[in-house]
C-alpha cells in the first residue's frame, strides 16, 4: 500500500492540464478563456515556459516533439520568439485569440537552403503517384512523398500543422535515415525499434540558435513558476475529461491517498481517496515534495492531493454517441462518464452487479426518487431468502429498467471497494457523484451500459 504525505498553501494557480488537443499551435480560444495563466520552469535547461507558448507546446506534443526550452521569450525579427531544442516558436499577434497565434519557424526550410540542389530535395514529377502502396503518400504541393514509419509518425503527431510538408525524400545523413519537412527533420533510429523513440526529431532549434549567436544560458527560477516534472508534462492531460468550469479530471494511482487541507505534509487530513478514483483538478500549487515532486493538485476548497499520485483520466471511447445529456457506463473500467452529445463533462467510479446482474444495453431513465427505502421484497426477494436487502435513506435514485435497476447512491459499500462488482445489479455511486448525476440527468436520458 502506498503511503501518503501531508500538505501548505501557495496560491500559484496554473493550468497545464490546460488545453484540449489543438489542431494547430495553441488551443482553441473557447477553451483558453477558462484557464488561468501558467508558468513552468525546466531545471534541465534553466528556462521557463508560459502563456500561449506553453499552450502550444503542450497541445502539440510537448517534450517529445519540441524538446526543452533553450531561452526565455524575447523579441527577434520584430516578433516575440522562444527557442526550443527542436523548434523556434513565433507569436503572431495579428492572430491573437485563434489557434494561429503561435507558429513554428520553418527551420527545415532553413537547413535545406544549403541542400536544395542535392538529389533528395529535387521535386518528383507532378504525376508521381503512390503505385498503389497504401503506406505511401505523395504531396504535389512540394513534390515529395512520405512513407511507412515516417508517414505514421507524421500522421500521429500533428501532421501538416506541426511539421509542415515534406521537402525531401528519405536519404542517409550522418549515418541515419532522415527526411526533411518545412519545420522539422525526422531521424530513424532502428536501435529503438518498437518504442516511441524509433523516430526522433533533429535538434534544429538548437542549431538555429547557435547559428544566430543566441544565448541559451540558464536563468533563475521565478517565484511564481512551477517546477516541471514528468507527470505534469504528460500529453494525455490534453485529452483528459474537462468540466464546464475548467477543471480537469485525473485518476489516483496510489492504493490509498490522504486529502489534505493544504499542500503540506503536516497539514490535517480532510478526506481519503483510493486507487483509480477520479479527482477534478482546479489548480496546481507548489508544496512539500512527495517522491521528489514539490507539486500538489487542488481538488476543492481546502482539499489537496500530491501530484505524484495522479495521472490524466482519459475516457475510453463509447460504442455509440447519443444526443443531449446521457451517461456511458463501462463495466470493464467501472467508470460512468457523463456526456453532452460527444463531449465528456464528468466521470465517476462505480460499483456494478455481481455475476452479470447488471443489464447490458441502452436504456432510458424511467422515473426518479430523491430519497427512498429499498426493499428487495418489492422485486420478489423476500426476507430470509438469498439476496434479500432492506436499505433506508438511499439518495438520488434514477431507475432505468423494470426490475429495480437504477443508478443511485451506494453508502453500504466502502469507497475503497468501488471500481468492481458488488451490487445486486444497480449502478452504485458515491454520494457526491450520485447528486451530480441527479442534477445532470432527467427522465428520458440515455443510460448506455456495456463492457
Automatic annotation (TrEMBL):
Pathway: Cell wall biogenesis; peptidoglycan biosynthesis
Keyword flag Kinase: no
Residue ranges of domain L,D-TPase catalytic in the record: 325-450
Assigned GO CC terms: extracellular region
GO terms under biological process: cell wall organization; peptidoglycan-protein cross-linking; regulation of cell shape
Active site residues per record: 408 (proton donor/acceptor), 426 (nucleophile)
Pfam family, one: SH3_3
Keywords for the protein's UniProt record, in alphabetical order: Cell shape, Cell wall biogenesis/degradation, Peptidoglycan synthesis, Transferase
Span of the signal peptide: none
The UniProt record lists the keyword Cell wall biogenesis/degradation: yes
InterPro entries: LD-transpeptidase, LD_TPept_cat_dom, SH3-like_bac-type, Transpep_catalytic_dom
Entry GO MF terms: peptidoglycan L,D-transpeptidase activity; transferase activity
Family under the similarity heading: Belongs to the YkuD family.
Name under which the protein is recorded: ErfK/YbiS/YcfS/YnhG family protein
Source species: Sphaerobacter thermophilus (strain ATCC 49802 / DSM 20745 / KCCM 41009 / NCIMB 13125 / S 6022)
Amino acid at each position: 500500500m502506498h503511503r501518503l504525505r501531508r500538505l501548505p498553501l501557495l496560491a500559484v494557480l496554473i493550468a497545464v492540464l490546460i488545453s484540449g488537443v489543438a489542431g494547430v499551435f495553441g488551443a482553441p480560444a473557447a477553451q483558453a478563456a477558462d484557464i488561468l495563466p501558467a508558468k513552468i520552469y525546466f531545471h534541465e535547461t534553466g528556462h521557463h515556459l508560459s502563456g500561449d507558448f506553453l499552450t502550444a507546446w503542450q497541445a502539440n506534443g510537448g517534450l517529445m516533439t519540441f524538446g526543452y526550452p533553450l531561452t526565455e521569450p524575447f523579441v527577434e525579427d520584430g516578433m516575440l520568439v522562444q527557442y526550443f531544442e527542436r523548434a523556434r516558436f513565433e507569436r503572431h499577434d495579428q492572430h491573437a485569440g485563434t489557434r494561429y497565434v503561435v507558429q513554428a519557424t520553418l527551420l527545415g526550410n532553413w537547413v535545406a537552403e544549403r541542400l536544395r540542389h542535392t538529389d533528395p530535395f529535387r521535386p518528383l514529377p507532378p504525376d508521381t503517384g503512390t503505385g498503389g502502396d497504401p503506406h505511401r503518400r505523395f504531396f504535389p504541393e512540394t513534390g515529395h512523398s512520405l512513407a511507412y514509419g515516417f508517414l505514421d509518425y507524421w500522421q500521429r503527431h500533428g501532421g501538416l500543422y506541426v511539421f509542415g510538408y515534406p521537402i525531401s525524400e528519405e536519404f542517409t545523413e550522418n549515418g541515419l535515415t532522415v527526411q526533411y519537412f518545412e519545420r522539422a527533420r525526422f531521424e530513424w533510429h532502428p536501435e529503438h525499434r518498437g518504442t516511441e523513440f524509433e523516430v526522433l526529431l533533429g535538434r534544429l532549434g538548437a542549431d538555429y540558435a547557435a547559428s544566430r549567436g543566441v544565448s541559451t544560458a540558464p536563468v533563475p527560477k521565478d517565484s511564481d513558476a512551477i517546477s516541471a516534472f514528468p507527470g505534469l508534462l504528460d500529453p494525455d492531460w490534453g485529452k483528459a475529461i474537462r468540466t464546464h468550469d475548467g477543471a480537469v479530471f485525473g485518476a489516483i494511482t496510489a492504493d490509498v491517498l490522504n486529502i489534505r487541507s493544504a499542500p503540506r505534509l503536516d497539514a490535517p487530513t480532510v478526506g481519503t481517496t483510493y486507487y483509480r478514483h477520479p479527482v477534478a483538478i482546479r489548480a496546481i500549487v507548489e508544496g512539500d515534495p512527495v517522491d521528489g515532486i514539490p507539486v500538489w493538485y487542488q481538488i476543492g476548497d481546502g482539499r489537496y492531493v500530491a501530484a505524484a499520485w495522479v495521472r490524466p483520466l482519459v475516457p475510453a471511447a463509447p460504442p455509440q454517441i447519443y444526443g443531449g445529456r446521457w451517461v456511458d457506463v463501462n463495466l470493464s473500467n467501472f467508470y460512468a462518464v457523463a456526456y453532452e452529445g460527444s463531449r465528456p463533462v464528468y466521470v465517476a467510479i462505480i460499483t456494478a452487479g455481481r455475476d452479470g446482474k447488471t443489464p447490458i444495453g441502452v436504456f432510458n431513465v424511467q422515473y426518479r426518487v430523491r430519497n427512498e427505502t429499498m426493499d428487495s421484497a418489492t422485486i420478489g426477494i423476500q426476507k430470509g431468502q438469498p439476496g434479500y436487502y432492506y436499505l433506508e435513506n438511499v439518495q438520488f435514485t434514477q431507475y432505468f429498467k423494470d426490475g429495480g435497476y437504477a443508478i443511485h447512491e451506494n453508502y453500504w459499500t466502502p469507497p475503497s471497494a468501488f471500481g468492481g462488482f458488488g451490487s445486486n445489479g444497480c449502478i452504485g455511486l458515491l454520494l457526491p457523484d450520485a447528486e451530480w448525476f441527479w442534477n445532470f440527468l432527467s427522465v428520458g436520458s440515455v443510460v448506455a451500459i456495456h463492457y
